[in-house]
User: Fold these one by one.
Assistant:
Number 1:
Amino acid sequence: MQQVIDFHAHLPWWVRDPVEAGRVLVGVWERAGIIRGVAIAVEPSIEAFKARVTEERIYNAVGDMMDYVALSRLPMMNKLVYSPGEAVREHIEVLREHTRSTEEVLKAARELDQILPVASLNPDRGISWNVERLRRVIDEIVGVKIFPTLHFIRPNHRSLGRLYRLLEEEGRIVIVHTGCDPGVWELPAMCSDARPRLVAEAARRYRDLVFVIAHLGSYSALQPGIFFHEALEALGLDNVYSDTSAADPFFVKRAVEEVGGDKLLFGSDYPYITGTEPRDWVNAILELDIPGRVKTAILYNNASRLLERIGL
Ligand SMILES: [Zn+2]
């Protein structure tokens, strides 16, 4: 069986005890030949959501995309159009339910060797608070994830400078969500902060810091591949990698053809792709019409090299 490292997964949210949730994750990994992997904390900002996602903003964002919304048949899209107030309340509930703090992920990782923790930015606290928290656990973590959608922040925003400098000095990495996101963030106007070219801009400023573009910039239910070309361009920088999670395998093959497979990292995004588990995504890579050595690079070697650099 091909050995695999999963560079993008989360603890299942419905198992509240973090160590128990970690055991569930390790169980699905084992069925896929995944020997270790990254578990990413998720700390959305409810306050920022309430302030930014107003009924008026939804109305305008839907207006831009009316044709796609009508064709999509996504239930949430209908709700956004016909009862935006209710849609906002539902989002807040979902965000609360899916919050998984950095501390919880660390707890699971301390018990389970297979789990490598990635912290989340916490946008409700200032940058100083975030930098201090990271400093305390820096030896234990692979790095930090920034969710431009859930966090309402651009990855090239100057305020992140201190955080990036700390990670650069300590040889840790940054993972940035790119593309759209379920719910209101399916509307392109709501996910424009999650563009790979903004990650590339930050990566040009911090040349010794590795940035991982999550999802190849391509996740979007309304427009699959929405920022894929920007992701390819960003991968031209030495310090930019991308994970394959939530991207149609078609885009993985295209990326291999366009920029090679040396900086692609397998990711399952477990448990967020409904109806799948990591082994389905491993099989999807194994079934791609690309050379065998490239498959091994994506599934194992590239991640292993990165982790070695970090010393984990
Ligand atoms: Zn994810």
Number 2:
Amino acid sequence: MNLNILRSPIVHRVKYFIKDKSLEFILQDKLYQSLSLSQSEIKQYRDEFLQSKIIDEINEKLEEFAQNVTGVNKKGYQYKTGAMPLEKGIYLYSIFRKIQPEIAVETGVCNGVSTTFLLLALEKNQKGKLYSIDLPEVVGMDYEEGYFWEGKKGAAIPKDKESGWIIPTYLRNRWELILGKSQDKLPELLEKVKEIDFFMHDSEHSYNCMWFEFNQTYEVLRQGGVLMSDNIERKKNTAFQDFAKEKGKSIVYLGPKLAFLVK
Ligand SMILES: C[S@@+](CC[C@H](N)C(=O)[O-])C[C@H]1O[C@@H](n2cnc3c(N)ncnc32)[C@H](O)[C@@H]1O
């Protein structure tokens, strides 16, 4: 595994670098209390993740993105991968290893980094299926006004690629991609699967969309299931906090913008 700290500004924009400190985040008390993760499980999952070839595989694809994608979209935002950082990947992986989901749902795939982390854990569990909903922005394409939400920035996939293109082939057999707006696609998916063990939001970070997704998925989330959200804003957009309050649930923060609650 490549543990180099990467210094080139372009590469730095997309590649992971590992600081020892970031690996300690996983030891946060709240994380193991809320899901009864023991210290030895935390260490085991972290070691499994770091010893897998996944970081090198993702870095290779992100390098390809950096080499081929430049410029800004119509709104003037620099194209970017939108990828979750490595520490979050270790969390996602560890949570999936612990809760052993049968059915998991996420919104927001883009190039597929979070999806890869989740699928890696399902593969190790040797069970479970992940459904992912995504409305991708393709580099160089023009979209009519209102196609995406007004707050969308530059997360995009390269021309001639599909959402989740970086996901290695050996992880795809537990995955189903649904293309379209989560507001349109989520209800029919949940109707089909009936009950879920995990949901994660990382798509349209508007208050309305997040509120919609949390309400929809909580209905079918099993007791003890995990509802997670990225892009939690403590001041600008308090959808997750408001939702947790309404349900009387405490929030476990895994960083400034990633958090979950347990039903
Ligand atoms: C931040 S990116 C997801 C990054 C991904 N989770 C990762 O770690 O690599 C957000 C994705 O959600 C898509 N998106 C935006 N609005 C959406 C909507 N209403 N429904 C579904 N996907 C949406 C974006 O185009 C983009 O592909």
Number 3:
Amino acid sequence: MTQIDDDYDRNGYAVFRGLLSNDSISDIFDQIERVFDTSLSAIGERITDHAGVDAKYLQLKTRHPEIKAYCYNVLGMLHGVRHALSNETVLAFGRKLYGTPLLAGYMQVRIDDPSDDRLLPMHQELELMSLMNLNIWIPLTDTGGNRGGLRVVPGSHRSGLHVHHRVEEPQNYWSLPLSLIDEERVVTLDLAAGDALVFHPFLFHGSVPNSSSTIRWTLVGRWSELNHVPYLRSARASMSMDRNPDPTAPGNQFVRQYLATSK
Ligand SMILES: O=C(O)CCC(=O)C(=O)O
């Protein structure tokens, strides 16, 4: 067993240090900036060449929030982003973990500016094709300290699948019940740009506010394994699972064994 295997098994997450080189990170930022330049110039906004990617993002966000949202949707499709989130070392780890080929799920670039308008509460990673998946979170800027990042509860992946409910704060999103979160066990991860965090779908995790004056940039990807995919088990199943999957729904028979309350 390697250190990565051991960490993942015990804590529900592990870190591949220095997975992306500085050159790869620069290349991804260049691609992101090209997306912003394309929109800015198409809508007649002035582009200051050396403004940098942060300023261009904030320019769009302040002046054209709808186009900014469209750019956000497109960034996860950039080839540099897909390439980084399909790193062979990480995927080999996932294939060994689950013993099946992996299905590509939602890939995104997260942009957390100091307004903190995208913070996620503590949750498990659900609503994917499979109940079981490998999640990859790669900061493009150093995290921890006052730039915030991700907080997790080590070992929480062993507690099973929990019911989530919708909360308005910090964002209209799904949250684990607060009573489940023992704040004394919460760890804020301190990762360098280019490190890759891999984590189990049941790991309790959520955002840490960005109290710096800079933007936190992160790549996030999800890979589903094949053995817990309702869509492959019933012609009446949807392609993505529900946030709170019903064990009696088509193709969901396996869900019952993971429900936290059944333990
Ligand atoms: O990066 C963050 O702040 C949170 C990301 C996260 O929890 C997720 O994508 O599921």
